[in-house]
Protein: BadM/Rrf2 family transcriptional regulator
Organism: Gelidibacter sediminis
Amino acid sequence: MLSKKTKYGIKALTYLAKQETGVPVSIATISEMENISLKFLETILLTLRKSGLLGSKKGKSGGYYLLKDAKEIKMSTVIRVLEGPIAMVPCVSLNYYEKCSDCPDEAACAVHHLMIRVRDSNLKVYGETSLADLMHY
Amino acid sequence: MLSKKTKYGIKALTYLAKQETGVPVSIATISEMENISLKFLETILLTLRKSGLLGSKKGKSGGYYLLKDAKEIKMSTVIRVLEGPIAMVPCVSLNYYEKCSDCPDEAACAVHHLMIRVRDSNLKVYGETSLADLMHY
DNA sequence: TATTACCCTACTAAATCTATAGGAGTAAAA
DNA sequence: TTTTACTCCTATAGATTTAGTAGGGTAATA
């Protein structure tokens, strides 16, 4: 299952992508427009800013805005920031590899090989899809 | 993340696929060979039997065995039984569709469209991969 | 009839998810 | 200069899910 955090994060990003570039949008506005709990959204946008996807302006008429062109924001990046590794098991993760404790031999593990296929397939989708591809729906 | 339940279930299935067809293998044997907690495995195999993938024989020299040829067991079935719907959001699930409460218009939802791509890509992998494809690793 | 092994329900500890609370800090407008 | 409208940040709490465990029941077979 996709977490609400990721879901809301993607919705917020697409909302920002549709605005004039560089103009900050307040959390409250996004919260209302996308039906997202304000305080929850606050923490999500904070995460996105810390990851370098969003910029923010403090004080009156402040808010969040995209730091890059929507075309440059790949969903693989967004998913990694909000949802974590794209791989479904650590032993096939490219960025966060970890050996499975229960598995003596990866090369002989059926789950390992299946999950490599799944990872590659998902990586292709997330890598080929940018915010620009989603913002006009 | 893939749940341990699914991971262990796939391991158990591939172990059974490697045995002589129709000969029951005890839970204890699979548990030892694949490093899986016996009691946990018990509930997993029960689920697989109830779903129609496994048969069982009670009493001495009893155990579990595959009901179908490994080629006929697609991973899409296995995943659905153990992990649940393949779709990451209910609003793109073919078998368990549900409307998202927070989303007024699916056609206008970026997450919806992204998750359709992900679902199709995963469905392809799981549909094209059978137990027979994994058992010889 | 003793033993072996599956059958089944219920329970629990730990982790994760989904928020919420409450204030500190900042910038612009009145 | 005071007020207002924002973001920033940490902590916490309730709900849900996960990963197992406990313990007895039931059927088959040697």
